[in-house]
Amino acid sequence: MNILTVDTSTTACSVALTIGNRLTAETLFNLERTHASRLLGLVDETLEVAGLAVKDLDCIGVALGPGSFTGLRVGIATVKGLALAAGKQVCGFSSLAMLAMNVPWASHPVCPMFDAKKREVYTALYACRDLPTPIIDDCVAPPGDFLDRLEGVTIFVGEGVLAYRDMIVDRMGARALFPPLSAHLPRASNGAVLAGTAFERGEAFSPAALLPRYIRPSEAELARMRG
User: Fold this and answer.
1) Contacts of 22 (CB under 8 A, 6+ apart)
2) Tens digits of residue pLDDT in 5-46
3) What homologous superfamily does CATH list for 2-95+186-225?
4) 102 CB contacts (<8 Å, ≥6 apart)?
5) What share of the chain is helix, strand, coil (3-state, %, to 5)?
6) Of 94, 122, 114, which is closest to residue 198 (Cα–Cα)?
7) Distance CA 195, CA 18 (A)
8) Which pLDDT does position 30 carry in this prediction?
9) Does pTM surpass 0.90?
10) Which residue of 175, 182, 183, 214 shows the fewest CB atoms closer than 10 Å?
């Protein structure tokens, strides 16, 4: 099973190629720049390294969100275009679930967190014994409000955690655990596991149905609602 997986849900951008149960290639960078100008090049380079083309893929995986509105649009539009052109199905997954997988087989619940701006975070709570299982579903909330919902020792991961670490420590004290710096970036290779599992379960779908999961409305949608 050949799966190409793309994540552009934050300032980090990653592309991974898995062949069977083996990670063949992965590219990850974290820059405060748009992903639009480089994503297709990364996809081409990743496939070229393995001697594959899009037509050789079984499906294409992509992080649906939550995350950056612009980043998600770039990633999803790119995957949709590739899949439509090659007649391939797609598998979408939560970007927060993907991030939680950076702490595998954790003894405590894992709280992935992206900075949603406006003094809010995209966050959730997962049990990560095997594949991530939601304890609290993906949501957007002020960090303090979400922290008040947590009980017991919790592992915090993500760039949102770095932004609000002082608050987390102040609220949670010794109940807050933090992994190494390298664990705070989402990785497409983890998303490949989620995409591959969905594909094996028969949960792949047409790229025409591929939509981002923003959780909260964009500024354009808010403007339309205001009339």
Assistant:
1) none
2) 999 999 999 999 999 989 999 999 887 666 777 899 999 999
3) ATPase, nucleotide binding domain (3.30.420.40)
4) 157, 179, 183, 184, 185, 186, 187, 190
5) 40, 30, 30
6) 94
7) 10
8) 87
9) yes
10) 182
